[in-house]
Amino acid sequence: MNVKEIVRKMTLEEKAGLCSGADFWRTKEVERLEVPQMMVSDGPHGLRKQEETADHLGLDESVKAVCFPAGCATAASFDRKLLRTLGETLGKECQAEGIGVLLGPAVNIKRSPLCGRNFEYFSEDPYLAGQMASSYIKGVQSKGVGTSIKHFLANNQEHRRMSSSSEVDERTLREIYLPAFEEAVKKAKPWTVMCSYNRINGVYAAQNKKYLTDVLRGEWGFDGFVVSDWGAVNDRAADLEAGLDLEMPSSFGVNDKKIVEAVESGALSEEVLDKAVERILSIVDRSVENRKEGATYDKEEDHRLARRIAAESMVLLKNDGVLPLRKGARIAFIGEFAEKPRFQGGGSSHINTFKTESAWEMADRSHVIYAQGYSTKENKLDDTLLSEAIRAAALAETAVVFAGLPDAFESEGFDRTHMRLPEYQNELIEAVCNANPNTVVVLHNGSPVEMPWIHKVKGILETYLGGQAIGGAVVDVLYGDVNPSGRLPETFPLKLEDNPSYIFYIGEGDKVEYREGVFVGYRYYDKKKMDVLFPFGHGLSYTSFQLSNLKLSKKKMEDTEELQVTVEVKNTGRCAGKEVVQLYVAAPEDGDVIRPVRELKGFEKVELAPGERKTVSFRLGKRAFAYYDAEISDFRVPTGEYRIEIGRSSRDICLSEEVTVTDTSGKRQPITMDTTIGDILKLSGAKEIVEKMIKRMGIADSGSDGNLGEGTADMAAAMQRYMPLRSALSFSGGQVTLEQVEEILDRLNRLQN
Ligand code: BGC
Q1: Is the pLDDT of residue 543 over 80?
Q2: Which residue among the candidates 229, 415, 526, 629 is catalytic per the annotation?
Q3: Is residue 706's pLDDT more than 70?
Q4: Whose CA is nearest to atom 3 of ligand 1?
Q5: What is the pTM assigned to this prediction?
Q6: How far apart are CA 343 and CA 444, in angstroms?
Q7: Res 700: pLDDT
């Protein structure tokens, strides 16, 4: 398709029309110019393709498909290859179903455990989210199908999601809420980006030129089209101007007409419209070019992959020697979720599964007994179900309670109000523990829960929302056929009140202030040295690993250079397993900038046979050390000593080495009369310039006799440090002149450049 030529031939009405959907899931065709329709589908962890006859709200049942583990689970795999495979498989499914763009991945940061959609999102950490998203996108797009990374930007709650304004400072956006999108856009080049419903600092995402155009296209080089979240358009002409190309779903001509009027009245330049049309057509064209007619996929094969991904993503949170279960021993599976697992969340990502498997179905029933324990339909414990559960537990070597959040507790559309499991489940777990000290809890939830029974149970397996093949995967891990290797992509706080956004989370009316700034998740808990239930990155294995021999390629470097890091990992246990080697960078503690204690900047998942040893390497560039300096509107690495830490979680650092990094940005603030003497003295070469002046001021000497108390000398030195340069005029008894201070200022600024 010659896109430019087609745009030239299109009428104003046709162009305006192309900027909104034909219906809920399709772009418009332009028959006379042979522009076909393109179909899109949710996403992200399976296809929710609706038939041609679907309703106008997109609520009808979708075609039968495969439900893979949700983002909360796949992020826990810390496995880029696995995400790539998931993407490739989804891409193949899209080809078979005639889908041009898959609406995912969803990369919003988990600001609070309460967000109703956390189950779709990857992490509280932008680096991990960006890595997972990029692998997924590369996988899908390698099959000639586009993705729509969503929801751009700062959409971290469901409460008032279509009107709330996320009030976030620029540094926090750049360090926490933008990087997952940035990494994916720069490295994986998604065909489309979906803008979110909310406002950012008062401006609707749909209308936010700064982020949709200046940052996304200008800074990151995005070349696809931006699509609105379904119904996110607020002022069509202004949105187009800001960089929102395609409105979804259809507004049934209303907004198309507004575009025409805006162009005719001169309020909107036709060039802006042409650009949007060009971008939409380019993607439609790419989709047509890559279309594989007659493609098919094997649902059973994909179900097997769903099982593998689920097993690879499970996180063994606690194990006091109770797992893996002994094959042949009598085991009790207790809880409705053993028979009817919760494996996906509600809302636009909901898959109409072609089949599901429960742990009870997949268990070796000659040795496993089952008791329902509770009913998710009742909100309290039923005496009969409880007694059956206690009886089953007492009969077994190990009791496994299948617990988690029922659908009504978390979903798209609303946020949770607390972090607890249903009370009846907590009561059941306590009762089972009393009947059998060997109790294991298997959790099904999209977001952290409080665990009041943690010290009573011997094992906890977090499955998150593990997709339709969860049952087989749980059995694989419980019995040790798969060695668990998932790691938490988020912190589990002890209680909700510990979360940094707790006080401000849903905001006041439509104003939601992100007052915790960059201190999201472990960045906050670590800074505050708070106890947590389970730290970010935590996860156990049935084998053990040793990390050793951390080496850095240099001890000193400039921020433009790269640092190579190598570390050895060895399987010191008796079975094969996978370790996730995590690399954190810790900024200098004595720096002027308030920064997190450590931040994840690398990870590698390594498979090792017993006794096997491998070397893992990482490359760290400027961004691994940088913070966003709002004064210079750029990332900057303050000169100082940085610690490279290797660990198993943000709280289990095994090795560390230091490297001195020098700032070469040269974009420092100019020195003025108001710059403090302390700051001036930090510049190399400044001491010689100001020495004489300081001596003349004589402040440090004046305090030495202790006139103002015992600490006079220290106090005088501190006061001098905090004095602005202009103080030389007031505190030198006339010995320093204005001309001299001006000359010093001039020399200092020359030194800076
Ligand atoms: C959701 C999107 C989804 C779209 C289409 C919206 O409500 O926020 O994630 O892709 O609907 O179903």
Answers
A1: yes
A2: 229
A3: no
A4: 348
A5: 0.95
A6: 7
A7: 64
Residue type, 118: N
Active site residue 229: yes
Nearest CA to ligand 1 atom 12: 348
Distance 230 CA to ligand 1 centre (A): 6
CA 627–ligand 1 middle distance (angstroms) = 33
DSSP string for residues in 644-699: EEEEEETTEEEEEEEEEEE-----PPPP-TTSBHHHHHTSTTHHHHHHHHHHHHTH
Distance, CA 320 to ligand 1 centroid (Å)? 42
Does the beta carbon of 121 lie inside 6 Å of ligand 1? Answer: no
How many angstroms does the Cα of residue 220 sit away from the middle of ligand 1?
Answer: 24
Name the pLDDT band for 34 (thresholds 50, 70, 90): very high
**Residue whose C-alpha is closest to residue 458's, from 542, 541, 398, 404:** 398
What sign for the dihedral angle of Cα 666, 671, 676, 680?
positive
Task: Answer yes or no: are the C-beta atoms of 461 and 323 closer than 8 Å.
Answer: yes
> 636 in ligand 1 pocket by Cβ < 6 Å?
no
Q: Which of 125, 80, 181, 175 is nearest to 490 (CA)?
A: 125
Count of residues for the chain? 753
CA angle 480, 463, 113 (to 5 degrees): 150
Verify whether ligand 1 is closer than 6 Å to residue 150 (CB atom).
yes
Contact 118, 84 (CB under 8 A): no
Angle (deg, nearest 10), helices 383-395 and 423-435: 40
Which of 72-76, 98-102, 129-133, 679-683 has the weakest average pLDDT? 679-683
Residue 216: pLDDT over 70: yes
Q: Which of 48, 60, 103 for a ligand 1 pocket mutation test, highest count of atoms within 8 Å of Cβ?
A: 103
Q: Which amino acid is at 659?
A: V
Tell me the average pLDDT across 544-551.
98
- Mean pLDDT to the nearest integer, 237-250: 97
Radius of gyration over every alpha carbon of the chain, rounded to an integer in angstroms = 29
User: Is 82 exposed, middle or buried (CB count within 10 Å of its CB: 0-12, 13-18, 19+)?
Assistant: buried
Question: Residue 106 CA: which ligand 1 atom is closest?
Answer: 9
Is the link from the previous residue into 249 a cis peptide, with omega within 30 of 0? yes
In the block, residue with structure tokens 């906890």: 460
Atom of ligand 1 nearest to the CA of 42: 10
120 touches ligand 1 (CB under 6 Å): no
Mean pLDDT of 460-471: 98
Q: How far apart are CA 244 and CA 439, in angstroms?
A: 53
Q: How far from each other are the two terminal CA atoms of the chain, in whole angstroms?
A: 52
The runs of H, that is alpha helices, within 410-508 are 423-435, 470-478
Q: Is the CB of 58 under 6 A from ligand 1?
A: yes
Q: Quick one: pLDDT at residue 708?
A: 73
Rounded Cα gap, residues 340 and 669, in angstroms: 61
Tell whether ligand 1 has an atom less than 6 A from the beta carbon of residue 229: yes
Mean pLDDT of 37-60: 84
Asked whether 24 and 227 are in contact (CB, 8 A), the reply is no
8 A C-beta contact, residue 334 and residue 389: yes
State the burial class of residue 203 (Cβ atoms within 10 Å of its Cβ: 0-12, 13-18, 19+).
middle
